[in-house]
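Z., the sequence and structure:
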Amino acid sequence: MIQMYGVSMRYKEDIEVLHDLTMSVDRGEFAFLVGPSGAGKTTVLRLLYSELIPTEGQIIVSGQNLSKIKSSQLPYFRRKLGVVFQDFKLLPNKTVEQNIAFSMRVTGARRSQIRKNVERVLKWTNLTHRRNALPEDISGGEQQRTSIARAMVNNPQIILADEPTGNLDPRLSLEIMRLFDRLNRQGTTVLVATHDINLVAQLGKRVIKLEHNPAVEE
């Protein structure tokens, strides 16, 4: 499902964030990507949804070789992915429901399908009662659940999450991870980048560790 072969990434000639990284995540797997600040976790995720192009190496996601993908194909490729950001990236002037629906509207989905999918993920993330609230009027945990619902609404094959619990307390962090676990049990491949080793230990999932070197699996 996700394959990276000999991937290196330099932002400038003398700043190499990733060096010769080879890793894979199988279809239907839940894996954590861990490592210290600056190890390249966020860079890996940005490479996987083709926001960045690697300096060297090959990346294959859901059967698509990203070195060969055309810019016109990117929107279709990204529909297979759901991305959850640490800072939520919610639109401040749109309600919870509108934020979730937005990612379907930009793909040109039918209104009936948007309503059906949005209703489903609102219930799944326990946000039905907050559907008309603006982001500034809901808690951090609710904002993150909104971000997850938005990532889920297109029924993606893969969820990529970048430090999704970085701004949450331990109880809410575990709640968010259990949402990812439920989603994974339904067949979605999940890759979560995090520095929270204690939280990782509670979930008991596969760990891929970055240490400014090729990945080490634990």
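The radius of gyration is 17 Å. Residues 80 and 157 are 5 Å apart (CA to CA).

Let me know what you think.
H.
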